[in-house]
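WARN retry 2 of 3 for item q-0093 after timeout on previous attempt; input resubmitted unchanged.
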Amino acid sequence: MTYKFTIIVPVYNEEDNLVRVETELSNYIKTASVTTSILFVNDGSTDNSQTLIEEICNRNTAFNYILFKENRGLSAAIKAGFDTVDSELVGYIDSDLQTAPADFNILLEHIDTYDLVTGVRSNRKDSFVKNMSSKIANGIRRAFTHDGMDDTGCPLKVIKTDYAKRIPMFRGLHRFLPAMVMLQNGKVIQVTVQHFPRIAGTAKFGLWNRLLGPLMDCFAYLWMKKKYINYEIEKSSKN
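OK item q-0093 returned
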C-alpha cells in the first residue's frame, strides 16, 4: 500500500505509554483524511520499549520502526525519521500522547496551502514552571528567528517531506522546524490543537533543555541562516 502521510513517533523509555500509543494511532489511521502509516524511532531506550514496538509492528501492517544503537536525543530521532520516510507528507507526535492524533486532520486541512503546519497547544496541562520556561524560550527564539510561532515545542506537526529532508541535522532542531522551512522560502502556519496531561512515563526535558539550551541553539541558527544555500534544479538528464 502507498501511504501519503507518515507519522514519526520518537520513543525513549516509554514502555508504559506504548500500548496506548498503538490504540490511539490505530484508531486515527481509520479516520485519517489521507492514507497514513506510523514510524517509531526508538532513541536507544533502555527499558522494554523495543520489545513492545516490535510486537506492535507485527500486529499492524501500517506500523514500522527504526532502532538507534544508542540514545542520541529527540532531534536526532526526528531527523532520522525525516530521512527514512518516502511519503509525500511527514509529521510527528510525542509518545506521551499529550496531544491528540485526531488533530492531525485539522493540520492536514492546511497542508495544500502551506509547507509546514504546526500545532499550538491550547490550555496547556503542564506545570507552572514548564509553562513559563516554554513561554520564555519561545519568546527568545522568536526574537532570533522572526518565525512568528508561539509554540514550536508543540509535538504535533505536518510537513511536506521535500522540505523536511532538506533540514540539516543539529541538536535542538525540533524547536526550529518552522524557521528552517522558512529558510527554504516555505510557508508556515500555526493551528490550535488540544493538550492533555501526561498519564504515564516521565518528561525527558528539564529547565536546561527548555530554556538555557534553546538560547544557545539560537546562536547556531543565526550562523546557519547566514550560510544557508537554496537552489532549484530547472533541468536534469538524470532519471
